[in-house]
C-alpha cells in the first residue's frame, strides 16, 4: 500500500528534475559568447585591404564596424573553412595603432578591443598573423583551443536526458499501478 505514494513521489521528483534541467539548458542556450575575430594581415598600413574571419557566431551573417574601416563589413559564410568572412579596406587617413572592432552577431554587439592594428604609411603588410586577437572572455581561440562545442552538453543531449528521465518516472508509476498480486515477471 505504501508503494503507490512512494512511486508517485519518485515520478514527481523525476519530472521536476527534468523540467529544471530543460530550463537551465534554455537559459544557457540564450547566452551567446563573444565571437573570435581574426584579421589578416594582422598589421597593415592605411588604405590596405584586410580579410576578416569571425568564428563563434551562431548566426549565418554578422557585421563588423571599426573606426579603422572605410565602411562596415558584412560577413557571410566563408567560402572555405569555418566561420564568417568579409574583406574590408582600412581608411587611408587612419592613424597608426590598434583599433577596436564591434561585431554584431545574432542580434548582439560584441566589442573587441585592439582587434585590428594600422601600421605606418608605406609599411608592408605582415605576411602572416603575428599574434591572436584578444576576443575577450579568455582571449581568442588558437589552434587546439576548446571551441563552443566543448562548453558542456548541448540542447540535444539535454532533451535526450529529459526524455530518459521522464521514461524512468513513467516506468516507476506504471509498476506502482500494478495490482499487488501481479508482481510475477511476464
Structure report:
- The structure is a single chain.
- By secondary structure, this protein is α+β, with helices and mostly antiparallel strands.
- Helices cover 27% and strands 26% of the residues.
- It has two helices and eight strands; from the N terminus they run H-E-E-E-E-E-E-E-E-H.
- Strand 5 (73-77) and strand 6 form a beta hairpin.
- Helix 1 (3-30) runs antiparallel to helix 2.
- The chain is rod-shaped.
- The two termini are 22 Å apart.
How would you describe this structure in keywords?
single chain, 186 residues, alpha+beta, eight-stranded mixed sheet, 2 helices, rod-shaped
Strand order of the largest sheet: 1-3-6-5-4-7-8-2
Mean pLDDT: 77
Order of helices and strands: HEEEEEEEEH
Distance between the termini: 22 Å
* Helix residue percentage: 25-40%
Describe the biggest sheet? 8 strands, mixed
Provide the β-strand percentage band: 25-35%
Overall geometry comes to: rod-shaped
Runs in which pLDDT lies below 50 for 5 or more consecutive residues are 138-149
If you compute it from the alpha carbons, what radius of gyration comes out, rounded to the nearest whole angstrom? 26 Å
- The tally of beta strands, per DSSP, is 8
Number of helices: 2
Protein structure class: alpha+beta
Amino acid at each position: 500500500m505504501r508503494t503507490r505514494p512512494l512511486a508517485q513521489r519518485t515520478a514527481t521528483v523525476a519530472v521536476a528534475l527534468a523540467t529544471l534541467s530543460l530550463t537551465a539548458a534554455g537559459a544557457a542556450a540564450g547566452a551567446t559568447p563573444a565571437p573570435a575575430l581574426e584579421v589578416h594581415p594582422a598589421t597593415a598600413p592605411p588604405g590596405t585591404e584586410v580579410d576578416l574571419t569571425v568564428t563563434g557566431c551562431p548566426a549565418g551573417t554578422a557585421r563588423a564596424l571599426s573606426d579603422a574601416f572605410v565602411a562596415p563589413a558584412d560577413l557571410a559564410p566563408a567560402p572555405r573553412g569555418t566561420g564568417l568572412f568579409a574583406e574590408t579596406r582600412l581608411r587611408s587617413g587612419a592613424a597608426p595603432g590598434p583599433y577596436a572592432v564591434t561585431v554584431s552577431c545574432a542580434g548582439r554587439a560584441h566589442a573587441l578591443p585592439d582587434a585590428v592594428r594600422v601600421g605606418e604609411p608605406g609599411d608592408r603588410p605582415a605576411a602572416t598573423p603575428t599574434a591572436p586577437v584578444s576576443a575577450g572572455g579568455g582571449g581568442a581561440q588558437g589552434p587546439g583551443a576548446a571551441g563552443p562545442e566543448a562548453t558542456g552538453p548541448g540542447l540535444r543531449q539535454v532533451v535526450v536526458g529529459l526524455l530518459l528521465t521522464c521514461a524512468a518516472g513513467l516506468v516507476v508509476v506504471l509498476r506502482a499501478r500494478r495490482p499487488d498480486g501481479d508482481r510475477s515477471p511476464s
